[in-house]
Amino acid sequence: MNERAMRLRGLIRKESLQILRDPSSIAIAFILPAVLLLLFGFGVSLDARHVTLGLVVEQPSAAAASLTAQFRQSPYFVPQEFSNAGTAQTALADGRIEGFVWLRANFARQLSAGHDPAIGLFVNGTDANNARIIENYVQQSWTIWGAQQTGSANPAPIAVQPRIWFNPAVRSRDYLVPGLIAVIMTLTGALLTALVIAREWERGTMEALMVTKISMHEILISKLIPYFLLGMGGMVVSVLIAVTLFGVPLRGSPLVLGLAASLFMLASLGMGLVISTVAKNQFVAGQIAIITTFLPAFILSGFIFDISSMPPPIQLVTHIVAARYFVSILQTLFLAGTVWSVVLPNLFALAVMAAVFLGVARLVARKRLD
Amino acid sequence: MAPGLEPGAAIGKPLVIAGLTRRFRAGKRLVTALDGVSAETSAGLVTGLIGPDGAGKTTLMRLIAGLLRADAGSVRVFGTDVRADPLAVQGMLSYMPQRFGLYEDLTVQENLDLYADLQGVATAARPERYRELLHMTGLAPFTARLAGRLSGGMKQKLGLACTLIRAPRLLLLDEPTVGVDPVSRRELWEIVDHLVRKAGMSVLLSTAYLDEAERCDEVLLLHEGQLIGAGRPGGFTQAMAGRSFHFRLPGRSKRALQAALATVQGVTDAVIQGEAVRVVLEPGMAPEAVQLPGFSGLTITPVPPRFEDRFVDLLRARSGARGGIVPVAEAAQAGTAETVIEVSNLVKRFGGFAAVDGISFSVRRGEIFGLLGANGAGKSTTFRMLCGLLPASSGRLQVDGFDLHHAAAVARGRLGYMAQKFSLYGELSVAQNLRFFAAAYGLTGARRAARLDWALREFELGPRADVTSRDLPLGFKQRMALACALMHEPDVLFLDEPTSGVDPLARREFWRRINALAESGVTVLVTTHFMEEAEYCDRLVIMAQGRILATGTSEELKAATRSASLPEPTMEDAFIALIMADNAKTVEAAA
Q: pLDDT tens for residues B149-185?
């Protein structure tokens, strides 16, 4: 065995043993991803379901009863009846209901007289997004009910036949969970790598390494390989959880997924290595890694917030966030399939980012302390 | 000819350093760590790089190892310029950094394997090399133990074994003996001697302990980035021959005697050593010529010179200053007053581990009492309990009449504490630090003003009042830390490793103040791993593994070790003998 191979073997073995013995690496690589997946898979949902909706019926009538029944049948609402608007208002202010529908005393009369029976809708607008969703749902229920009222004076003018592609169930989970994989891989790639190298600086072991005949290339490669494998392991676990536990479909090619993940992992590792050459203690390395990689992957990658609805300057910034390209690939592969026109440009962007960050890491890493 | 190679005799020299300068930027300031150092070392010898903290030892080591780049000057290792070909130089030397460069979550064997891989040791050659190194370091029974679970001394030996896995031509050891117990220190020196004699290795070893200089074949003396001396240690010591004496005056305070001697014209150095005052005189001065009014009947005996004498002499010649004179008022009956600190059967457990394991001692008013032991012996834990910072697991402890279990806050108001590494606010100026501590101790009005004034005057901090304290030299930091600890005029003063790493002059000055305080009735408790410092104490305990091995005056402790083969035991000899005896007892009990 030549000396170079021997040195690499020694370092990689050391790194692997450290990963296996250090509970914090295992936690960042496997436990944190599982927690995040469960949290986003079960806890966070951008859909409005089981909305507690107040119904104010000032004067009971057959028409009012059938409209109330329409709301009751809807999976989106948990209706609660009130006899007047005043008590409903109090309930809304107290947060017991998220909105209420107000059928005035003249509702049935107006309806039978052929007038448009205006109904009132009051929604708690604190969460604007939620309010808009509730408004939509109520509108829909109202339209459907109106269409059913044969002979009524309020037929639906246009019959809307909605068909939603790629995510027919419109479950936010199905696009959150794939995006989350990018966030999770950032944790291992950038955060963990930056931390472990900073730890070597802190404990003085880097100084001892550098005085051996090892070259800087070898030090970098010996860090890349184990953490690359660790990150890919985390990715596989995340995909399995997504598909089996959350029933997220994987419509695209697993091979392409693997390729994209590899490129993204290399870009993340590159960032981690660059950070670790700048920050030589774990606290600073952790802070920098979170601010420059983890938070952007969360906020600017299109994982939760749609990039096309961001202000143009911010949209520009998202182009230097590697996670953006990976999230786009992930959402496409999971929900739509291997759509090359989307996947290829993003793969290319990832390859460029990986090359740039690894190149910068090699340039700034010097076998010296100054 | 290879690039960077120089023809001629220099090839045989392990190190040829020429005009080496290195500066660092610290905030807005430019600090000169090394200032035009030129030196050479000889092959097959142990060269000591001697100097206090901040002298530039580590910077020099790193420059030699190619980890830093010089601003000016050059380093050649066996003729090869480090700057021109760092990899070739790194192939010739091995370097053990201060924290040994060990991976604590790897076992002893795994650490050895790693460094064998890194240094390209052939697989076939390994078993023999491992056996040799493990035998030499005594680590053979512990190959499966994680490096993080080893004691300080064992870590240091493992670090050395990893460094030696491929026999280098030049071995660099950066402060290998810091913080380890004297037994391990002695063993390390035996290994180094063995290496040099058997393998013909050249060694450069840095240390802040001046007593280690005498174990080196040649020394380089570094102070504030400059080389102030080079040569054989014997030559340094010999230059001081006939100038060192013990002055004794039974029945009188040794501290008052020391303070008086220190001010006499022609006295270069005066330190307390057990019951005597060790005095170094200027060349050509006879001890009888020392005029000391008020002290008649002195017994004067000549003592052999030591390396430290020469170092102090050199520093005095450089600085010219003699430091502030601290008058010592001789107390009528120092050391015989009532008991101020009473500790009995004190235990502190952390989980299943007893950091302090049933210790008892008592300290009288105005006494300087020492806790001597290596890192991990339980000194700092004992201190924290005495200061009421850490609750005891069991046992009784009283400070100034207060039980720390019940009245920790009251007791704390009467004591001052100077922590290891001086707990100061580095971003604040000297004056701001002093004001903060005055406020923290609840001083107000005229008393506050008086104490602040006192601190600036007494510790000569006035001219530096507006200096950011981080930028102070180590000696000044230490003074300021002491000023802060004394702000509220405490009755009891705790000093945790107070002079670790400061230069000998700063240490002397520090102890002059402590002596004056003790004479004025302040009780002083000091922890140290520094054998020399133990001599300054009235009484001391020797601690190891949370227990007290012996209590007494330094003379008593040394006398217990005296034998035909060791007529003049040092404090270190006494310490080692006690630890050996204790280990033997433990082995016996286990058998």
A: 887 788 888 999 999 998 899 999 998 887 777 888 8
Residue B113 contacts A, CB cutoff 8 Å? yes
**Residue with token string 């090619």:** A253
Q: What are the C-alpha distances in Å from A15 to residues A21, A197, B108, B162, B589? A: 10, 11, 15, 17, 41
Strand extents, DSSP E, B412-570:
415-418, 492-496, 523-528, 539-544, 547-552
Q: Do A17 and B66 touch (CB under 8 A)?
A: no
Which pTM value belongs to this model? 0.79
Q: What is the largest CA-CA distance in chain B?
A: 78
| pLDDT tens, position by position, A22-49 | 888 888 888 888 888 888 777 666 666 6
Contacts 24+ apart (CB under 8 A), A105-113: A105/A58, A105/A59, A106/A59, A107/A58, A107/A59, A107/A61, A107/A63, A107/A64, A108/A59, A108/A61, A108/A62, A108/A63, A108/A64, A111/A63, A111/A149, A111/A152, A111/A153, A111/A154, A112/A63
In this structure, are A314 and A240 located in the same domain?
A: yes
CB pair distance less than 8 Å for B96 and A208: yes
Identify the CA nearest to B359 among candidates B328, B389, B392, B329. Answer: B392
Enumerate domains of chain B plus CATH numbers. 9-233 (3.40.50.300), 239-319 (3.30.70), 335-414+491-552 (3.40.50.300), 421-489 (no CATH)
Q: Fill in the DSSP letter of residue B429.
A: B
Is residue B531 within 8 Å of residue B570, measured between CB atoms?
Answer: yes
Q: Which of B62, B90, B101 sits opposite A369 (nearest CB)?
A: B62
Distance CA B258, CA B292 (A): 11
Indicate if A231 and A360 belong to the same structural domain: yes
Query: CA nearest A292: which of A272, A316, A312?
Result: A272
> Residue A228: enclosing H or E segment and its boundaries?
helix A216-240
CB contact under 8 A, B120 and A13: no
The pair of structure tokens assigned to A187 is 């944790």
